[in-house]
Amino acid sequence: MTEKKIGELLVENKLITTEQFSEALEMQQINPSQPIGQLLCQMGLLKSRDLEYVLDHNNKRRKLGEILISQNLIDEERLNNALRISKSEKIPLGRALIRQHLIEEEQLSHAVASQYDLKFVRLAGVRFDQEMAGFINASFAQRLRIVPIRCRDNCLTIAMAYPLQRDEIAQLESCCKMQVIAVIATESDILIAQQKVFKLSGTASHEELNFELSEDQIRESGRSKYVSDFISADVDFLVKRIITTGIRDGASDIHLESTEQGMEVRYRVDGILQTIEMGADEVLIGPNARQIISKIKIMCDMDISERRRPQDSSFKMKVSREGTVRGVDFRVSTLPTQYGENVVIRILDKRSGAISLESLGYASEHVSALYQALDKPTGLFLVTGPTGSGKSSTLYALLSRISTPGVKTITVEDPIEYAINGITQTEVNEIIGNSFARLLRAFLRQDPDNIMVGEIRDLETATISMRAAMTGHTVLSTLHTNDATSAVTRLIDMGIEPSLIATTLRCVLAQRLVRCVCQKCRTRYAPSGQVLAGFGIPANSGMEFVQGKGCQACNFTGFSGRLPIVELWIPTRDELLLINRQPDNNILRNTVFAQSNRPTMIEDGLRRVRAGETTLEELLRVVPFEQIEAGGEKIDRMLVA
User: Fold this and answer.
1) Does the domain formed by 209-349 have CATH 3.30.450.90?
2) 6-198 sits in which CATH class?
3) How far apart are CA 240 and CA 461, in angstroms?
4) Strand pairing of 340-349 and 253-259?
5) Is 149 left (phi over 0), alpha (psi -120 to 50) or beta?
């Protein structure tokens, strides 16, 4: 007995007439690849739910593997291998094929559309109405990989990565009280569209943020040289979601911490680790913790099988925000722990364009003093402080000031964080021998006027930098010290002659970053007696203090953004002579700050507190307590003033 075709079954069930079927066959001649059932639905002659019922009831739906074989995308052997993976790992066949890189995502979506007699659509460039987010719950859409894209004539068009069941379609129609028209789109297109429709970042700015791979990072979509398996699309989505959240919220680091229950993700924002809400995706992170770490390792070309030793590597991505593309570097470190591996991802966002000291929040008196010091044509300018104190941003601001069309400026950095027009920037690469010292020697043969050294780490780099400053160059660099005068003792400890320091040193700027009180939830408060006593401030001093109560804008921390607190030392002739005598830091600091009118870092911080920009507790967090104690007399004078 000859098996009936779908058209005959539709006519037999009186869902269409013979004339309608003939009309659809004529239309199919124009587009032979389009299934007859899909054409009938598009022509308005057949309801999609009726078509699905006939296909399923009569077992007429073609299998996905058969469609792909008929399109010459795979062969029987590869299909069988993918079916084994799909069954053993309990994932859809399509995902197994993509994981093996046997088909492209769009090819899969076309095949699924053909299998279910649905239309395939591309969502790139589609403009979404604001009302779309009101039709479907965001968490529900994320879980099912669907997104509403159009509402016309009481019909809601929903793009799906995989077709929903009939009862799920009925549930959607019941909720939105209109007919649902299903179309197929690629899963990556749907995830991007969800961010546009539902604003999944949760930020107030609702900026558009999409990711694409850097040209030199093809390995993210391929296999690691250390592993023969592939990562599922769900894990790809979760990794991208974690990274997107970090960049969008201005995090400097992403911490993935293995726990007994799975994994906790925290972000360092404004110098403090905090948890950021990620909606329904949070519950998926724990069960997929091991695969998430494996995915990150593959992106970095780490050894995915090595879980007992720490590893370090990096990867790059491009971020597109409102049509502007910039590169972002990610430095990755793994560490084995009791419950698995911890991963820390340092975000190095390569922002473009010049920055200024004013835009970084420096006080006007510091800006004018620094600019005046920079007018001197030669010498060594140092910015000091611990990791994360904003030293690099300050150096870039100083570079922007001195870099003019009439001079040549070269930098050696690890890594390059800002791209500045008109400046030659190079990056340290220890693997091939391009260290700070080696690149510095090469710089001196390039006839530069200004040189920026990302960090003085050793005697060789320090010596070359100071020799360059002594021979007519302006050299800017950083040191890890607690205060301004410690820069001298640190250089002497490295082995630099005090006379060389005294000859070349022009300016030292020590700084920290304090968090700013959130402007949207700021309120007056009274610090505890213990905090006031720590600064020597009487309870009845009459000073007014403000803090943030915590709101959605500041992620309920009470702080938003950071500002620098600094102490600036431009050495006088007498102070340079004192350096020649190799003084210890206490003697030097007493001369430079205690016996002069120069404000210390803690004084600058107290000015910020009195202006309502930060809190006493924040100063205690970032300024060494011995500096607070040592500045007691100056604090008293400030209170009287």
Assistant:
1) yes
2) alpha beta
3) 39
4) antiparallel
5) alpha
